[in-house]
Amino acid sequence: MSVPVTHDDVSVRTRAILARLGVDADLDVPRSHASIVARSPITGGNLASLRTADASDVDAVVADAKAAFAEWSTVPAPVRGGLVRELGELLREHKDDLGALVSIEAGKIVSEGLGEVQEMIDICDFGVGLSRQLYGNTIATERPGHRMMEQWHPLGVVGVITAFNFPVAVWSWNAVLALVAGDTVVWKPSEKTPLTALGVQALFERAAARAGVNPAVAQLIIGDRASGQALVDDPRVALLSATGSTRMGRAVAPRVAERFGRVLLELGGNNAAIVTPSADLDLTTRGIVFSAAGTAGQRCTTLRRVIAHSSIADELVDRIARAYDTLSIGSPLNSDTLVGPLIDAPAFAGFQKAVDAAVADGGTVRAGGARVDEFGEYAYYVQPTVITMPAQTDIVKHETFAPILYVLTYDTLDEAIALHNDVPQGLSSSIFTTDLREAERFLSVAGSDCGIANVNIGPSGAEIGGAFGGEKDTGGGRESGSDAWKSYMRRSTNTVNYSNELPLAQGVKFT
User: What is the pLDDT of residue 4?
Assistant: First the structure.
C-alpha cells in the first residue's frame, strides 16, 4: 500500500494549482446557498463549495453562445484552428498542474492524470490539422452543364455533458472538433469534478484572449441535474453530446428527439477479452491487468469480462491473481501507486453489491474482493477483484463501475463470440491470439459487435486518431478522430446549373 496523504495537504495543493491555472471563481460559497461541493476521493474531504447555476443562468449562457455563433461560424476554418492551437500550447505549459488536478478530483494515478491532459493536447493537434481538411465531395451528375457537390456547414450551439471519470479529455474531444467546425460550445461537467472544469475553462479563456476570439464561443456551467436538463431541453442547442450511464442516455435521448435536436451518446461499456489457447500469456496478463485494474475500474472501456479457453483458464487466473498481489493501492498522488480510490460511497456500495451477487450466483473470488480501509472512513479504496463464474449471469451482464473482473470459460470460438456479444453494451472488445484466422474472425461481421475491436491489446484506452464509441446500449455515438467531425456539422448538397438549358433529373419532362 502507498503512503496516505492528509486532506490538508490535498486542499492546499488544490488551491495553489487553481491559482496557477488562473481560476478566480468563488470557491467558498456558503453551504446554506445553492452550491456544489467539490471533494477529493483521495481523502473523502471537501475541497470547495461552488455556486450552482440555475435555469436563468443556463438560459443566459446559451443565449451568449447562440449570439457568438453568428460571428464564429463565418470565421474561416483554418483561423478557427488557430484558437485550438493556442489552447494546445497552454495545455502543454500547464500539463503537470492540470494532470495533478485530475488526480486530486477524479482519483486517477499520476501517469493517468497526465495522460488525460496529453490526450487533450493530442486532440488539439488533430483539430489544427482538421481545420484545413473539412472536405466535401464532388458528385457525378446525370444532367449536362451541371455540377453537384456537398458542403459541410457549422451546426450551431453544441451542449456537452461529461462524466467524472474523464473530467477533461472528453470535453476536449467534443469542444475541439466543434470549435473547428464553427460551432460554439456550452459545457456542463460532472458535479463530482467541477474544479478540473474550472481549470480548463480558465486556460481556454486565456487561449481565446491570445487568439483575439470572443470567449463566449466555449462556456462553462457548474450545475446539478436540473442545469443539465435545462441544457438538454433548450431548442437553441443543436447537438447534445452526453457521456455517462445508459440510464442517463435513455432519459436524455427522447427529450432531445422530442425537439428534433441531435444527440451524440457515449454510454455504458461491459468490455470483454477472449483469450485463446494460442495466446502469449505473458503479454495477455499484462494487457488484462491494466485494462481491468487501471483507473480502479472506472473507465467506460475497463475490461470487465475475460472469456478464456478451458485449457488455459486456470493458469491465466493464477497469473492475474499473482499480478494483482503486486499492485500498489493508495493515494494517486504518490508516484508508486497503481490503483487509486473509487470516486465515492455509492461507487463502493455498487462494488460490494456486485461481489455479493456474483458469489450468490456461484462465483468464486480468486483475488481481492474487499475494501482497503486504512485510508479513512470517507475514502473508498478497494482491492482489484477476480471472480471465476460458472455462467454469464445477470450481474456479469451489468456494468459495475469498479475493478471487478469476471472470468468465464469456453471450448469453441463460436461459443466465445456468443458469450462476448451476449450483453446489452457494445463499446470495446479484444482477443488475445497468435492465430491469424481467429483474429480475423473476431474482427469480421461475425465477430465482435462492439464499436472498438482490438487484437492482442486490451479494450481499455484509445488513441485520438480513431473514432471512439460503441453500439447497442453504448448509444452509437462517435467522438474524437476519423470522420467524427461530421457529427458537429450539417451537410448541404448543392447543384449548380452553368448551362443555358434546364434539364430535369430522371428524364422528367415538364414543357
Answer: 67
